[in-house]
Amino acid sequence: MNKAPRAQDDASEIPRRRPTINDIARLAGVSKKTVSRVINASPFVRSDTRERIEAVIAELGYAPDPQARGLAYGRAFLIGLVYDNPNPQYVVNMQLGLLDGMRGSGFELVVHPCDRNSPTFLDDLRAFIERQRLFGVVLTPSVSEDERAAKLMADIGCAYVRVASVSLDTPEHMIETRDRLGGREAARHLADLGHTRIGFISGPPTFRSSYERRSGFEEALNERGLTLPKAYVLEGGYTFESGIERGRELLQLEQRPTAIFAANDEMAAGVLQAARQLGLSIPEDLSVVGFDDFQIASRVWPALTTIRTPTREIGRLAVGRLLGLEDDDRDPKSRLPSLVVRDSTAAPKTQGFGASG
Amino acid sequence: MNKAPRAQDDASEIPRRRPTINDIARLAGVSKKTVSRVINASPFVRSDTRERIEAVIAELGYAPDPQARGLAYGRAFLIGLVYDNPNPQYVVNMQLGLLDGMRGSGFELVVHPCDRNSPTFLDDLRAFIERQRLFGVVLTPSVSEDERAAKLMADIGCAYVRVASVSLDTPEHMIETRDRLGGREAARHLADLGHTRIGFISGPPTFRSSYERRSGFEEALNERGLTLPKAYVLEGGYTFESGIERGRELLQLEQRPTAIFAANDEMAAGVLQAARQLGLSIPEDLSVVGFDDFQIASRVWPALTTIRTPTREIGRLAVGRLLGLEDDDRDPKSRLPSLVVRDSTAAPKTQGFGASG
DNA sequence: CTGAAAGCGCTTACAG
DNA sequence: CTGAAAGCGCTTACAG
Question: Of these four, A96, A124, B33, B105, which has the most CB atoms within 10 Å of its CB?
Fold first, then answer.
């Protein structure tokens, strides 16, 4: 590609400003429509034509303007993250995963925190999507479990993927985190250690994961011949404070449990707090298991045995689905909850009180 | 505004599809240019014309298409957050603040985590901004302190605001968090309690806040006639692990300090850990002060006395600056670091070893 | 497999 | 204070 000295109208002149599709077309000696075909990976381009165009694109470092594409295409090259989980670590990990998955795609990530209980929830969500004509959105729990939100996406024709602990929609719209399996892991770990009197603090009923984590836990307990008596099951709110309160209640029971499974790390940290206030040592007097493996799990004392949730990996899969890539699930196990053993669990010190239930 | 029954060409027909600037112009009986003036708050519109147009806009629920505006204007209606602070709580709080500040502006937030040490750092940043033609970016520490990044913004003509602990640029490009004042608060609190042998664990030198927090601390200590001996000043990395290590070193000194100020909560939590491993009780044997007041501060035991940083508020101010709104600084004090006293500080138990230095 | 025309919904000069 | 023209950089039908 020779640069003509100062011929303003020379067909091979390389522009100083940001190159456009017209520059590429001119330099490659084709119409802009054909360049457009290459950009959009259309199969209807002869391979030598394609190569020539790609060479010019590479030489000029051309990148199509997403705004112009979007305007003509009717959709912005923007993916939205719609979330209401207040846990910062969850949000950031999810964002990193989404970013991982869209790297090199030309899409950008826009974020939309929301509140399902707000009277303007649906209107805000609709405005967010329609204003910028988003290409698609990823919904995460618990807003991903809200059928009104899913219906809105379908109504306005916005592509969407729901991340949830269990399938709630047709497969192309779902990424399942399978929290139930994590509950099972927690149960097996405590059963293996020899615990028989085990308490459980659930999340709020507004999160489907609350149900799944509990079900998996109870299921696997039953398989080991253990039960989860009603009196040992309390409802928390996935918050530190609720962990303290519910933990205290469980530990003040006449026959207190020798182990507690709290359905997330925040509550497990609260249980640690309650135990300390009651003068109990962990793990000697009480084993505690959390769920998530967020930073707090390794910051509290003793460090929490917990269930790791691969949030970032899940995020990567979710955008992949949205962008229509085939699932890049090289290591399917890496997207499942898994047990992380730390210092908050041990065999029960005292046996013989008799398992209740 | 009467809807004509079925006159396809009736000038007052209301469209079923999303209304455009042409619909508004037609219905209001003006040119689209005049509608554009109203959208862009131009002063050159007669007020009755303006009111008529605004009425039609309200009636149709018209919102200009940001992509079309952006294409014509040469810039997207998108604000970027460029960050490298790995703390999830900082990131989320900052995002919420930015979102607060841009609500109703028609702008959307796109996020760009980065790594100053990556060889592609500047190229990635440039691509991020130029690809979508961002309207502007907010840079947060420590990338906000990188002169290469600031120069890049200036070079490519991208509006930017740098959030940093101290001014590093012309006023229109700066939001200062004034961490030095927080350091002062920490010093006064410990001095008021009667501590004289005080240790300090700094952040890494790559963060300007490390210097500011230390300077403020030392300054206020000196004002009280106290000193911060070299041997009591250790460099940490703003991480939990570095807090454990540096904390242990300070506590194993022949004359150990009766109080430690760690320059962030993560490290302060690490100091708590180190103290526990050495069998020290807090606050009886050792007072600990952190910085940030992130969630971890109230999750560890005992809950940390710390310096609250109003990150969300700072974020709100930063976009306001970027969007050219006058600073909405109703309560200037609310954007300053402030002391939060919890359970990790008390008067020193043992006096009389003599202050060192 | 390739192209000329029209259009996406706005804004920027330029007139008046 | 208001408007007609041209253009931002792409893509969608429609031809060939």
Answer: A96
